[in-house]
Amino acid sequence: MKKINVLLTGASGTVGFEALKQLLEKGCYNVTVFDKKSKLSVKKLAPFENQIDLIYGDISNASHLEKITNMDAVIHLAAIIPPLADDLPELAHNVNTIGTQNLIKQLERHSPNAFFMYSSSISVYGDRIKNPYIKVGDPLIPSEGDAYAETKIAAEKALQNSNLDWTIFRLAAIMGNHKMSKLMFHQPLNTALEIATPRDTARAFVNAIPKQTELFKQIFNLGGGESCRIIYEHFLERSFAIFGLGKLDFPKNAFADKNFHCGYYDDGDVLEKILNFRDDSLEDYFKMEADKVSSLTKIAASVFKKLVKWYLLKQSEPLEALKTNDKERIQHYFN
């Protein structure tokens, strides 16, 4: 049987790396990887170089995509994500929107029958604190200043207006290999949070390849389902306990009240019924995280937890806005 030619972008990323492993495990795909060259990507992809066609380049530069031809399916995961997307919105636009447009044009010319699977985001729905149950048909109202969400909406439109066959998955909060950063304080503590693990998310994209007919020119919400739901405050409490950091004892005004995203996918089971990709629950996620933390790391974190929390709190932009009486930013973060 002739192997299917699959293009995977962003293979060195959290979900992309899982997708790469799963594609190769299937044994029925010729896999071409397009990725940005960096120390991390070279290190992660080196073990697979004899199993894949590897193209390094900048997706925002159309000329770097010229080697991409004769693809049957495309899993497009390459993106600049927050917090980097917040800090460098122009870069996010160039990679997430312009890059996607460049890829679409290359495929229209040299792989016109390719099935394009696009990774979008729950951020396109904006702040859902008051109405946390989300459906695909809900209006796309990104939170104020959310450059990342804007790039995803623009990329979605470019794909919908293309001549390709496509499907769009709007990903819930993908939790795995996450680092604590200033972003943790942007999210209100009462946020309804539905997660999905990287391996379940990757499985959805890989399982989607032979399901083109069922997914054809449709948008789906991709999340872990009811077993992957929790309130953000409780998520942080459990995470802190796993890492040996004790109680979540930051001042409440360290966290924003509004202008973030996330929620529960009310129609998430639609995609699960087609692709059967969910294996992990929230408990599985916490176990995976706990397994990564050595006893020595946990002891060290426990000893230095006050210093770690002080360092984290210094990154709280909502708290900084209050301290400096920055009225514009106070209005952005608080009700």
Automatic annotation (TrEMBL):
Domain NAD-dependent epimerase/dehydratase: 6-183
Gene3D superfamilies in UniProt: NAD(P)-binding Rossmann-like Domain
Membrane-spanning parts: none
Superkingdom as given in the UniProt entry: Bacteria
Pfam families cross-referenced by the UniProt entry: Epimerase
SUPFAM superfamilies tied to this protein: NAD(P)-binding Rossmann-fold domains
PANTHER family: BIFUNCTIONAL POLYMYXIN RESISTANCE PROTEIN ARNA (PTHR43245)
Protein name in UniProt: NAD(P)-dependent oxidoreductase
Biological source species: Bizionia myxarmorum
